[in-house]
Amino acid sequence: MDNQYPELENKNAIIRMFHVTKRYGAQLALNDVSLDVDANEFLFLTGPSGAGKSTLLKLLYLADTISEGQILLKGMNLSRLPKKRLPFLRRNIGVVFQDYKLIPTRTVFDNIALVMEVAGANAKQIKRKVGYLLRTVEMEHKAGAFPQSLSGGEQQRVAVARAICGDPDIVLADEPTGSLDAESARVIMELLFGIHARGATVMVATHDEALLHSTRRRIVTLKQGSVVDLGL
Ligand SMILES: Nc1ncnc2c1ncn2[C@@H]1O[C@H](COP(=O)(O)OP(=O)(O)OP(=O)(O)O)[C@@H](O)[C@H]1O
């Protein structure tokens, strides 16, 4: 553990953010955010548009670097992570991007299968797992389709299936139900609750009031880059 803040031990936390600030030029996207997320917690992140939800998730999946402060993920200081550890860490994090980020040259099946392929799973294991996920998100009939032929909601379902396919320890989902009707949103949330029940830590950024109030999960609220409610 490489922690500048040894006085603040929390053995249950899998994610620890200490006084994290993120600036984009003069724009303050996150302002002095401190947050612990326990292993196997299911947490919602909410707040108005521009509050910093996507930025916070981006810092956790290492799509961006922090300006000040420290993030420990599974005890590893993200600012000091050797480059060679990066693929290992990323394999343990499933991400549902706000804009899906499916690979346009791969089919739906192959987009979902990629994580398992990289992890060295065999064809039979991949077929079984991807088949199960496609059935669950009701996209079996589109297994051979390419992303550009899918609706936003369909791409979102594929993105969620892809994020959980490799059984990651941590799942970070940015508005995973944003483009979905109520029934599709329910299916997606069931998948996320399912991977949580199997031991994963799940963070979901959402504006969706109905979703937030449908379960008794911790809700962390951001406003203008600051945490205004830790939901504890
Ligand atoms: N790459 C960037 N360059 C400049 N400013 C950025 C960048 N990314 C985010 N910001 C700014 O940082 C602030 C936080 O943005 P962020 O996308 O994290 O908000 P959000 O809470 O996820 O919003 P939304 O709910 O609309 O997705 C906003 O003011 C945004 O304009």
Automatic annotation (TrEMBL):
Domain ABC transporter: 15-232
Alphabetical keyword list: ATP-binding, Cell cycle, Cell division, Cell membrane, Membrane, Nucleotide-binding
Gene3D superfamilies found in the cross-reference section: P-loop containing nucleotide triphosphate hydrolases
Entry keyword annotation includes Membrane: yes
Pfam family, one: ABC_tran
Compartment(s) where it occurs, according to its Swiss-Prot or TrEMBL record: Cell membrane
InterPro entries in UniProt: AAA+_ATPase, ABC_transporter-like_ATP-bd, ABC_transporter-like_CS, ABC_transpr_LolD-like, Cell_div_FtsE, P-loop_NTPase
Taxonomic superkingdom: Bacteria
GO cellular component, one term: plasma membrane
One of the GO BP terms on file: cell division
Family note: Belongs to the ABC transporter superfamily.
Function: Part of the ABC transporter FtsEX involved in cellular division. Important for assembly or stability of the septal ring.
PANTHER family: CELL DIVISION ATP-BINDING PROTEIN FTSE (PTHR24220:SF470), IMPORT ATP-BINDING PROTEIN (PTHR24220)
Record protein name field: Cell division ATP-binding protein FtsE
Organism expressing this protein natively: Desulfatibacillum alkenivorans DSM 16219
